[in-house]
């Protein structure tokens, strides 16, 4: 069988094996296995409560897996001697809520973690912040405070903030779900640009047209398991499972 995955000969950017996560008696992830190759864009779709956010949070160790392994660029991040901060530096994350500091400008928001976490000097952090704000189409908003920006612009600042840390992988958890419909396109456009530039991306989204057009693979989750995965034309266009069809009939 020919693999649909790009074979670079390198370890997978993300490799998840037998991942379980319980909160008390509630088993939210019930054995998840999949890989994201370097340069791949994988979209995770599925109903609310199916464990999509928990899956992303286990990848960057915001949650501790109950069992199983998560490897990032070949390194086991669930091992006992893992440097959690070092792992998080390799993984950028963008959430539904942008969580910008209201008292800092766009430039300040993109500089602060570079300064505090990476210990970059002011001039270098500012240069890198400018490059990344330009990259997300906000060259004219360096001095704007969050309250002066639309939701879509704030989310693009949050993307620039993550990119400024130089991540190898970007995780997106429903990045457009909190936005007014007319602002969604700009954010998806930025994400499309990142994908075209070769960024490795794991994206939880309800934007089926984005998943169809941009994803190399789509993973459909329900009830804490991967029900099916494959190229978008297969999973979205011709789903094999009844659960996938039912979900798609609600969102499409
Ligand atoms: P999704 O992102 O697919 O909507 P989540 O991963 O957010 O799903 O949640 C899956 C289930 O895990 C839900 O039942 C939710 O209540 C539960 N859950 C998520 N985070 C926690 C937590 N920190 N403590 C307890 N339960 C949680
Ligand atoms: Mg979620």
From TrEMBL:
<keyword id="KW-0029">Amino-acid transport</keyword>
<keyword id="KW-0547">Nucleotide-binding</keyword>
<feature type="domain" description="ABC transporter">
    <location>
        <begin position="14"/>
        <end position="248"/>
    </location>
</feature>
<keyword id="KW-0067">ATP-binding</keyword>
<dbReference type="Pfam" id="PF00005">
    <property type="entry name" value="ABC_tran"/>
</dbReference>
<protein>
    <recommendedName>
        <fullName>ABC-type polar-amino-acid transporter</fullName>
        <ecNumber>7.4.2.1</ecNumber>
    </recommendedName>
</protein>
<dbReference type="GO" id="GO:0015426">
    <property type="term" value="F:ATPase-coupled polar amino acid-transporter activity"/>
</dbReference>
<dbReference type="InterPro" id="IPR003593">
    <property type="entry name" value="AAA+_ATPase"/>
</dbReference>
<keyword id="KW-1003">Cell membrane</keyword>
<comment type="similarity">
    <text>Belongs to the ABC transporter superfamily.</text>
</comment>
<dbReference type="InterPro" id="IPR027417">
    <property type="entry name" value="P-loop_NTPase"/>
</dbReference>
<keyword id="KW-0472">Membrane</keyword>
<keyword id="KW-0813">Transport</keyword>
<dbReference type="InterPro" id="IPR030679">
    <property type="entry name" value="ABC_ATPase_HisP-typ"/>
</dbReference>
<dbReference type="GO" id="GO:0016887">
    <property type="term" value="F:ATP hydrolysis activity"/>
</dbReference>
<dbReference type="InterPro" id="IPR017871">
    <property type="entry name" value="ABC_transporter-like_CS"/>
</dbReference>
<dbReference type="InterPro" id="IPR003439">
    <property type="entry name" value="ABC_transporter-like_ATP-bd"/>
</dbReference>
<dbReference type="GO" id="GO:0005886">
    <property type="term" value="C:plasma membrane"/>
</dbReference>
<dbReference type="InterPro" id="IPR050086">
    <property type="entry name" value="MetN_ABC_transporter-like"/>
</dbReference>
<dbReference type="GO" id="GO:0005524">
    <property type="term" value="F:ATP binding"/>
</dbReference>
């Amino acid at each position: 069988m020919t693999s649909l995955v790009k074979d670079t000969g390198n370890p997978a950017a993300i490799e998840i094996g037998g991942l379980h996560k319980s909160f008390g008696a509630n088993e939210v992830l019930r054995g998840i296995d999949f890989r994201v190759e370097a340069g791949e864009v994988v979209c995770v779709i599925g109903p609310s409560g199916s464990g999509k956010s928990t899956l992303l949070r286990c990848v960057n160790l915001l949650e501790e897996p109950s069992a199983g392994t998560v490897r990032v660029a070949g390194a086991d991040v669930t091992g006992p001697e893992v440097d959690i901060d070092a792992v998080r530096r390799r993984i950028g994350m963008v959430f539904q809520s942008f969580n910008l500091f209201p008292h800092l400008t766009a430039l300040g928001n993109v500089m602060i973690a570079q300064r505090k976490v990476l210990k970059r000097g002011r001039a270098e952090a500012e240069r890198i912040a400018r490059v990344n704000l330009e990259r997300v189409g906000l060259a004219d908003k360096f001095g704007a405070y969050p309250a002066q920006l639309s939701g879509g612009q704030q989310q693009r600042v949050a993307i620039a903030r993550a990119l400024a840390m130089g991540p190898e992988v970007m995780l997106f958890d429903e990045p457009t779900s909190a936005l007014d419909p007319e602002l969604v396109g700009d954010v998806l456009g930025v994400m499309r640009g990142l994908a075209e530039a070769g960024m490795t991306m794991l994206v939880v989204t309800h934007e089926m047209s984005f998943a169809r057009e941009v994803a190399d693979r789509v993973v459909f989750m329900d009830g804490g398991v991967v029900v099916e995965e494959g190229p978008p034309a297969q999973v979205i266009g011709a789903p094999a499972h009844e659960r996938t069809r039912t979900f798609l009939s609600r969102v499409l």
